């Protein structure tokens, strides 16, 4: 018996958006009006690339960015939940699928000593250039009309499950824990036995609720959470 836990990162594992948290490094802790207004829907990664150029041009160094990012708060109860998962890895495989980036997630998880809880992290690749500027790229290309151009989480999840099957690993249940609109696409691919856990009051919960009102509900079970204590309670029930 083995379970797959799929986590979003921003507003799920951490209680903020890591991409907007980095703005604390900017002069005056804010971005210029023109830069703030340059975002085009579905093109967040390109927007963040421009933010990182601005931070680099402003003289913000890697170490300052790291210090800032590692102060981001975890969601209530998340530390205890991740420690519980880490102590029960024989039961739980655990992955992150996020629209953040590899540098931020790596910094945050390692600073809190949670990096070993996760078997894989799927997110936009980032790195510092030879001139000390942080750069970010799209995670992949896809043809899903529902998702931003840089990341379809359904595609990531399907490819991971297929790869695991090739290795002889199948899961009793998939538990998907998230909050955002881009989490709906993978949730809609979950099977009847699986569980979606949208965060209360966030976009994913509202979208799932709207589907039910439209009489086209998701196939999986839905359990809403407010703190990670509720997620831990479910996992302890599954463990029995």
List keywords for this structure.
10 helices; 240 residues; alpha/beta; 38% helix; two-stranded antiparallel sheet
**Proportion in β-strands:** 15-25%
Enumerate the strands of the largest sheet in spatial order, edge to edge or round the barrel: 3-2-1-6-7-8
Indicate the structural class: alpha/beta
Catalogue the unreliable spans: none
Q: Tell the overall outline.
A: globular
What does this structure look like?
Helix content is 38%, strand content 16%. The protein is built from 10 helices and 8 strands. The strands form 2 sheets. The protein has a 6-stranded parallel sheet. Helix 8 links the parallel strand 6 (173-178) and strand 7. The chain starts with a strand and ends with a helix. The relative contact order is 0.16. The model has no long low-confidence stretch (mean pLDDT 96).
Short description, anyone?
The protein has 240 residues and is an alpha/beta fold. 38% of the residues lie in helices and 16% in strands.
Secondary-structure topology with pairs:
Elements: E1 3-7, H1 18-21, H2 33-36, H3 44-57, H4 62-69, H5 78-87, E2 92-101, H6 102-111, E3 120-124, E4 126-128, E5 134-136, H7 153-166, E6 173-178, H8 184-187, E7 195-198, H9 203-213, E8 221-222, H10 228-239
Parallel strand pairs: 1-2, 1-6, 2-3, 6-7, 7-8
Antiparallel strand pairs: 4-5
């Amino acid at each position: 018996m083995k379970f797959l836990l799929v986590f979003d990162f921003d507003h799920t594992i951490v209680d903020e958006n890591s991409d907007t948290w980095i703005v604390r490094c900017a002069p005056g802790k804010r971005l210029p009006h023109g830069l703030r207004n340059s975002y085009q829907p579905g093109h967040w990664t390109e927007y963040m690339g421009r933010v990182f150029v601005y931070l680099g041009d402003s003289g913000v160094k890697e170490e300052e960015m790291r210090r800032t990012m590692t102060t981001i708060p975890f969601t209530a109860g998340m530390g205890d939940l991740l420690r519980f998962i880490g102590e029960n890895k024989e039961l739980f495989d655990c992955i992150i699928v996020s629209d953040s980036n590899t540098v931020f997630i790596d910094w945050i998880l390692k600073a809190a000593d949670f990096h070993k809880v996760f078997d894989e992290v799927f997110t936009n690749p980032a790195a510092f250039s030879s001139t000390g500027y942080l750069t970010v790229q799209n995670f992949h290309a896809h043809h899903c009309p529902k998702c931003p151009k840089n990341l379809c989480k359904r595609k990531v999840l399907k490819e991971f499950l297929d790869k695991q099957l090739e290795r002889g690993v199948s899961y009793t249940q998939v538990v998907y824990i998230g909050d955002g609109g881009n989490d709906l696409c993978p949730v809609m691919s979950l099977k009847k036995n699986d569980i979606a856990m949208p965060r209360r009051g966030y976009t994913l919960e509202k979208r799932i609720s709207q589907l039910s009102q439209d009489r086209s509900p998701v196939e999986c079970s839905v359990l809403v959470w407010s703190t990670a204590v509720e997620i831990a309670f479910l996992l302890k029930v599954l463990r029995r």
